[in-house]
Specification:
Length: 155
């Protein structure tokens, strides 16, 4: 995606807990560093931006509260280890109705609970309610001027 959008001067690192995904990524992009590890348990260096897409949607535990704690720890680590910003997406409780069957494997987040947690990390954030009504993206910023900078770069 970054290459297609002409973001060529980027040092990218990929992390996934599923080895098959890392192997496929390495085959598709051999010049990029990919690691198979648990993001929460692995010590990582600081990155300018940290992005997570879909990583938090599959429950690590059938207990909602256990998974919600995991989600909060994941978000906090992303924000702590980014120097500028982090972004992540989640399936929304409101969007659960879009799926024909209930699937206990997936985590459907309460947007206000996630937003309230994010407010404990920073007051500079954006919630993007996607055209797909069942998913939302939150970007957390270290400084308010970064919100404007990102908006200009995207547009």
């Amino acid at each position: 995606f970054l290459q297609l959008e002409s973001f060529n001067n980027i040092n990218y690192t990929g992390i996934d807990i599923i080895n098959e995904m890392v192997i496929k990524a390495k085959n598709n992009f051999p010049s990029i560093a990919f690691y198979c590890c648990d993001f929460i348990e692995t010590k990582i260096t600081k990155y300018t931006y940290i992005v997570s897409s879909g990583s938090l949607n599959i429950k690590i535990d059938s207990n909602e509260l256990v998974h919600f704690k995991y989600v909060k720890n994941f978000i906090k680590k992303m924000f702590t280890n980014s120097t500028h910003a982090c972004s992540f997406n989640l399936l929304s409780k409101e969007g659960q109705a879009f799926f024909d069957q209930q699937n206990d494997l997936f985590y459907y987040a309460d947007i206000s609970s996630i937003e309230n947690f994010c407010k404990t990390l920073t007051k500079y954030y954006i919630i993007d309610y996607s055209p797909l009504d069942y998913v939302f993206t939150i970007s957390l910023f270290k400084k308010p001027q970064l919100i404007n900078k990102i908006s200009k770069e995207i547009n």
